[in-house]
Amino acid sequence: MSEFIIPLITLISLELILGIDNIIFISILTDKLPPEQRNKLRYMGLGLAVVFRLILLAGIAWILKLDQTLFTIINIDISGKGIILILGGLFLIWKSTKEIYHKTELANNPEKAKTLNGNFRKLLLEIIILDLVFSIDSIITAVGMVKELWIMYVAVIVSVVIMLIASKPISEFIQKHPSFKILALSFLIMIGIALLGEGLHFEIPKGYIYFSMAFSFIVNFIQVKTHTMPNNELAK
Fold it and tell me: Which residue ranges does UniProt annotate as crossing the membrane (predicted)?
């Protein structure tokens, strides 16, 4: 039994770690909608994430072919997966940089910032693009870890259910604290660079990336808590 349980738990954990990117991106975009539409976009975005992953698992033979070299540029082999990761990374860097600009430079110009808010369909399309990129990366990683297809299906479904439960409180926390919003966008830029590097066969160990994210989050969390404490508490 342990030969199935351990790979399943490991794969669920990995899917959740990779799913953090999705949750952060969706949380940032839902903030651009009226409150009554945010849950709908959040659930549709994560729902599409699981649909994409299950469809890609069904076409696992095609997914594996994406790792095959299509052409070579400056001694760098470019595969189908590489093209998707490069385009996805560039899109994530562009989108995150644009959002940081809107939330800082236009912060004192609410009228102009309001005109830049996306409509539901546009934001959903952006989520679909990133869902596809993250799904392909996630499935190829899963294939390298386990061989049984049913374990991959269970891991994907369980991880997305957990993400659905966690997405609302995470989204509300990011919306409540502007500094975390900018930090989350900076995380997405870093993830975009990592995707770009992976597409060009210059992989940055994911452990470094997520450790940096965790450390930055803890530092910012301490700062927020410190500034919200009463003066008499700080004096102690």
Answer: 6-29, 41-64, 70-94, 123-144, 150-170, 182-202, 208-224
